[in-house]
């Protein structure tokens, strides 16, 4: 009863696929379906279930991860953004994402979309009448997102602002949306966290009666508001966009450490998507034009281990039909099992070269040794019976273990 | 030759009247003329010459100092704001401020207007074609003023942005504008100082061939860019808006002290308008509804003395036809003469209760004792012959002098 | 095993008495004993057990809460501070706090002391030889506490620094110390949190084999290091010193809300002592000379409710033999029971006038309505059976409840 | 009369030699004399006249630029530091720097020393009686320098603190000191600028009757206190210590630009010593062990040009008897003449690769083109008759001029 019901909607950290890392702002219906098909066939049995269409699905001209400043957007007569039908043909005739959500649901999966905080700039320019008979200019706030020109914020002190968010969530719920990633809200760069709009979204979703998981972006979210986030959202971003560079992966260690105490069922601090496999098919972000992840195999295991210890969301960023060797890593049952079962995890120690985490489940104790330096490190196996979790190899008591550069050794004990 | 020519356009600190403190965003042509008439008749001989129409002259519905969010504005087909003809009838038929400027010039005065940094939001919404054939959406920057929703900034890295500012200054020069107060540019609150746009304005004005004095707002301008400002503008604001409270006046002392070294001919650091007399006729700012200044006479003398020692601009804020007893103060020839003649002034000492400034002219040495505490203070007259400048009274050597609470004693020596 | 053992030493949040609020830096042995006697007789059965001697017990001349700059201190030949025997006669002949600790233990209570981070200034001046044969000047760091001149920090990169802390904890353990409040370490004002010294203290205490509870001061501790604190300390301060003003009590609400997720067994975020009863007997802090708390009864209940919901330490600040009406409040079994039993608590909502917290125990659900405004507020009792916890009165379903100004209504439901 | 007299003591920016860059904290009397001899013989005629002994001359064991934490210092019975006689034999028998100053004066030069803000730590430990009968512990402030452990600050609100500074300056004046470089005062890292101690030094020097030039260190001084500095000191540092790296030299451009308006006779913003020639003879700073400057010839000319345009102090950092090819640069009469004669200089324009300064003297106009990029740049000579100042070559009107990488072309026009 005191428990927030929305936390039960994501009892374990969500897993799935998100279109941003591979297609930027430009994913199409066909690509979404192809990724959903792959997810259903190869990954669903491991817990992956969300298919999320990221930003600009309402912009007809979107063609990469570069935003078109002041672009015209697809919008209904209440100022709500709707899918661009040139990119999402099934959305024609006012169907919105209903047909695509149905396709995803029929695969036994869940469907998610990205939204930007606020009301479209063009709704304000046209001064459309919004839900409840308010006018866009009266409910809009004179604040913007600094990196995307599509929206104005909403002034939650005006009566129509909540009505607008309510109408937005009602529309998206009517389509069958299961997951909302709201952007420009957890750390808005110019204004910090938009708490009044987060609270408004929470309220609007709860009113729909549909268990829509709420994810907040971008980071870094301010941990001074960690308790607030726990009361209002299922996921929130811990850093700005994460890409496949060692510098960023290394930088995630202290961030994960500090947020670990805030993890609990239904509240999943989010270190962002997993930039694995065939990312950057049309996205041009990440500082390179390479169409595949630059992470080495040790780095991939490091990332997946850290995310698992944090019990973080697993959203795959690559084009799934092109999945390669990383398949074995993202479906490692032992590691996924640890991620599921641990109830406490924390950074035990950290030097410039070695970071140690520990965690506990009902049955096991886990220790991860991360080599964040540039030379191999040797650590020692426990005196008691143990195994290395990624490989499943049994360890001899006290045996020396080599931790490769940027890699990890993950030990499970009884 | 190395000297910036624009500095010769304001060889002494500008004096005049500005519509903001009395009429907020809503001044009308009739009110401007009435104030110009008064200025010409009663104040011109003391050096007052600028008549400045402050913000929102392009907004038909403006009626106080409260901004109407996302309001429709009067604009020409190149995206340049023009006077609202319901408020400025002489601007009809495309005359802009030409006729009003002519009226002011005929009085032997100069005419100024306020502008906001950037390009109107509605020019971007309509995507108008701007000077040189560019489109508004291509030259606009996705940045805004946080306290007024009328504009977007300009992206000076795009080729059409300078062309737009050039076209704007050309239009305003064609009207006969002598003074531009550009707002949201010296301290934009969200983004700091917009230096590239300041440089663009400097360039645009210089191209007009008309000696338009450039004043930058709001403050606090960052003194780390004081040298930059000296190279680009005639005036810049030292604080946010100044109103008639002792707290603000007291707060100006350290600010004036720190900027004093940056004063030189053509460069006039600006502590803002003088909120004297019949201010707040329709402006609702300043934290009160009182239609006259709350400054006591000692405070008025303190303000005028500090502004004079700083050689600061004197822009009267009250409705001039209602000028009362303050007339004697703002026309005190001795004080105005000191302001004109001193070439160095500085804060000599400052305690919690007493601030001392000194200054030097070719003929005289000046000392001001400001009582910033809440009890009368006694200071001593110089040993040498001297007089109190406000009263013109001769002082006996070493005589005790009472400095009233919040007041000043201003001493002139040979 | 993964669990930090030190957390088991404080399985519930410590309760007791601390000498600071009443005696400042000047408490004497007799006063400590008198307070311990009272605690044993009247409060032990409610869970109060710690008797803590606060700062400057090593300074012979200490006589209030004002520090004597560069004072001479009682110190042993290894540079460790020892009790001033003029104030603590039983410490003579090298007994340290052993006899006083024994006295407290004999009452069935526990004994605690305050220490300052680092090594005494005078040990550095004399360059004493510290534990392990190091010299004070080699292990000291050139950093200080800005509000107390007694110490230098320790340079944990030098080999002798840990040895010094080990020797310090060994000495204090040998006296029978059960609780250490280390100051100038959680927020050192000049340098932020001294994490390497916190880790050194953790290690030094663990080596003693004695379960000494570790409390870190002053605040505000930075929640970005909340996870670090959970791994190293039992208590840490959330704000700077807390006194009996409504401004400070009101300010604790958002702080408590943000730290609530970090509370767990053995980790007790600390909003500071309870300034109740006969405080300021010789302390001159808190902004008044009044020798009793200024908190009204509603404010006292508000404070105790908020501290209880946060499951915070309860350290009484007043001279206990002078305890008055507050006795009923600090021994309210129902409230203390809630504090003991709840496993989750959070701020549910907050406006400018009303703050609502909720919590849950195995058997009950709790709601607290805090009136932080200046007018009475009426809230509604639950529809289900409930009672007001402070009074024990049964509530009629949906009955209106008056929350007094600065007061609280605390409701328990099945 | 209003003019501060101390400004007349340094009517042009001081030039000379300082021991820090070559000998760190460890210079000896012999080395000082050898450098003074060279200065007198080879550089005096170009305006170089100050010989300055930098930090730790009171520390017997000083042997490089590394400080010895908590070292014992040579001190008189009033707590004033005096020369270590093992390093400065002529200081024996209480002569202090008198004999060395006399030696320097006899060469027609001036003598300077470095001091640290405050009172020695060991004077506080010993609680010596200071001038006027105060005790060190009463006048000391509990604040320190974070990078040198020798001193405590002075609490200027205590009556004896000014007396101490007065006694210190009196002693140093009695030795014949002409120049004081006071450290840990202009930007104290922990506490910002120590304005009350700066004012105390100003007062103490003025009382001596000796025209001792006052230089404040380290930087960056805060330009918000630029006016204050003008009223109290002759020189103040603009950055932290400057060494022979392009990164630091490049970084000086915006700093010089912003301080240029604060330059006036007697007030000389200071970009620090010139790390030319045989620096690092025993100093181990600057990030290398190389015993000579790493600056290329173009970089040396860039540095000297920028310093000259700023009319900055010229203090040579190398061991003068080892002076090499840089002699021609530091004695270029045309450049030194420009430095002497210009009355206004400013940064005219700055891009990522090209910085342009302009200046004016009675007879000439100067333009400097600095290439701060990594490729050669071509600029154009003026249309009017002109010459390149470093080389003295006459320029053909409009001829193309190559600015070498990191170098400068400095043009003089009539």
TrEMBL record, chains A, B, C, D:
Tell me the domain of life: Bacteria
GO BP: any one term: carbohydrate metabolic process
For this UniProt record, give its keywords in alphabetical order, as a comma-separated list: Disulfide bond, Glycosidase, Hydrolase
* Keyword set includes Disulfide bond: yes
Q: Name one GO molecular function term.
A: alpha-galactosidase activity
Disulfide bond recorded as keyword? yes
InterPro entries in the record, alphabetically? Aldolase_TIM, GH, Glyco_hydro_27
What reaction(s) does this enzyme catalyze?
Answer: Hydrolysis of terminal, non-reducing alpha-D-galactose residues in alpha-D-galactosides, including galactose oligosaccharides, galactomannans and galactolipids
Q: Which Pfam families match?
A: Melibiase_2
> What EC number(s) has UniProt assigned to this enzyme?
3.2.1.22
Q: What CDD domains does the entry give?
A: GH27
Gene3D superfamilies given in the database record = Aldolase class I
Top enzyme category:
hydrolase
> What family, per the record?
Belongs to the glycosyl hydrolase 27 family.
PANTHER family with a match to the protein in the record: ALPHA-GALACTOSIDASE (PTHR11452:SF42), ALPHA-GALACTOSIDASE/ALPHA-N-ACETYLGALACTOSAMINIDASE (PTHR11452)
**The protein's name:** Alpha-galactosidase
